[in-house]
Amino acid sequence: MTRPPPRVAFVSPRFADGPTVGGAETLLRRLAERTARAGSQVDFLTTCATNHFTWANELPAGERKVGDLTVRYFPVDDRRDVQTFHQIQNRISQFANVTKEDELLWHRHNVNSSALYEFLRTEGHRYDRIVMGPYLFGLIYFAAQIHPDRTVLLPCLHDECFAYLKTIRELFLGVSGWIFNAEPERDLAARLYGIDTTRAHIVGMGLDTFPTDPAGFRQRHKLEDTPFLIYSGRREPMKGTPLLLDYLDVFRQRTARPVSLVLTGTGPFDPPSSLAPHIRDLGFVDESEKHSAMAAATAFCHPSVNESLSIVILESWLAGTPVLVHAGGNVMPDHCRRSNGGLWFRNYPEFEEALMLLLTQPDLRTRLAQNGRQYVLDRYGWDQVDERLFAALA
Amino acid sequence: MNTDPFQIGAEGVDAERLVAEIRETVATKMQAGAYAGAQLARAERFNLVNLKKDENFFDFYMESLREAVAIDINDFEIHERRRGLAPLLVFFKQSVWKLLKFYTYRLWSQQNQVNGLLLSASEEIDRKYRDKLKALEDRIAALESRSRPTP
């Protein structure tokens, strides 16, 4: 097996430690841990923030040991002009013509840490590789310019308005290599920026198999006889949660099928009143409960079009449950095509047909789930991921 | 309303083929008018991102809007979830509803007018841009055929 280089830094605006941190941060932490476990000295450079809305410095600055990692926390700059940031971001979101100066202003009023930049300037040369991501934070934009020759970008790129900025193009073209989560993400970067794909690596995140207790879950939550869909993760418009709530509400009314919805994760949501009694909002639950919930579900439904890997659908397959995903994103339908482990929909009618299939044909559901599980075992076991990761860092 | 699931036609699981079969079924049912109405227009409000990628979706959405645009103010049932006093509370709500008709009907009628005007405007914009695109495509085709070298 390829060995990772002796000293590696990972950079991310937040360090995944607790319920509020998202998939990209979790991915960076896991890859950092695998690199450390393989014998490298790994530093994780991050900010003292935990909340990605306020970016308040909630953790003390300084160096702490977390498992095999040395985590260095740096304070977020307090010079942010949130109003300017939102004004420019609104224009970007509408695909309005934004000048490069405005883009730079947007990065400057995004999350930044002068202390982290200073550390990279003075100490960065000691690292053989500096892996950083996700792409749309000011912190990553500026940090990537300090040692571009040893920086590898792990962008978690989506086909969204921010990906079309001139400065983001410069960010991609300025670094020495890229780690993508899946082929469609790499293809998107090639299409948008014309990157040299020989320097691009598809890595993803490894998953370990886990035990589940679907019967226990159904009993605990009084769902013995009720089929249900599950969604795990942040509940917000960017993740498509309102779409799922509306679709399931209409589905129940049109088909009279008593399908419930189990939600795990954080964030507020506002369901239609007729659906509300049929939602079990479990909030943040431990991994074991989440996996049991997945195993007990008819299907995992992911309505987002902004995923670059989607760890939760891989987990769902490992739990033995097929998936139903939005066709609008490239990555999740690609997983489903490659694995034959799930179905995808573009609009409500296709959602209705696909869900009816999953509800009425248990044999199909089982075969989809088996295919999905095999796909994860073949492609996202840690051994395979380590091999791809260390090749990317070499 | 036909919501019967279709049956899988072949052995084995091929997700791509299954999705293709789902789409064929949806197209057939759509032509038969199985998917229309205010419910669906509402459900698709968060799916408008698809408009930029899927031309058929826009047609489907406009069709749903046409079905939804004229609201029937009497097309809902007055009910009460709290048991016990439910009949009394329903009677009370129905009485209030009747008393306020002179006011709500006026708002409802105005809202229907606005809905109709907005739909007409959207249809007109759609027609205008379709015509414009068609003209541009024809022009490009003409220019391409003119610049193609003769054999």
Q: How does this structure look, described?
A:
The complex is a heterodimer of chains A (394) and B (151). The termini of chain A are close together. In chain A, the strands form 2 sheets. Chain A has an 8-stranded mixed sheet. A 6-stranded parallel sheet of chain A has the order 11-10-9-12-13-14, sandwiched between helices. In chain A, helix 6 (166-174) links the parallel strand 6 and strand 7 (177-180). In chain A, helix 2 packs across helix 3, helix 8 (214-220) crosses helix 10 and helix 11 (311-318) crosses helix 14. Chain A is 42% helix and 16% strand. Chain A folds into 2 domains: 7-203, 3-Layer(aba) Sandwich (Rossmann fold); 214-379, Glycogen Phosphorylase B (Rossmann fold, 3-Layer(aba) Sandwich), CATH 3.40.50. Chain A has helices at residues 23-37, 82-93, 100-108, 114-123, 138-143, 166-174, 183-193, 214-220, 241-255, 287-296, 311-318, 331-339, 348-360, 362-379, 382-393; strands at 7-11, 41-47, 62-66, 69-74, 129-132, 151-153, 177-180, 200-202, 228-232, 260-264, 279-283, 299-302, 323-326, 342-345. Chain A has 394 residues and is an alpha/beta fold. Chain B is built from 5 helices and no strands. Chain B has helices at 15-31, 38-43, 55-68, 86-99, 101-147. Chain B folds into 2 domains: 14-68, no CATH class; 79-151. With 151 residues, chain B is an all-alpha fold. The longest helix of chain B has 47 residues, at 101-147. The A-B interface holds A 237, 240, 242-243, 246-247, 249-250, 253-255, 305, 327-328, 336-337, 339-350, 352-354, 356-357, 359-361, 364, 367-368, 371 and B 1, 3-6, 8, 13-16, 18-19, 22-23, 25-26, 29-30, 34-35, 39-40, 42-47, 49-50, 53-54, 57, 60.
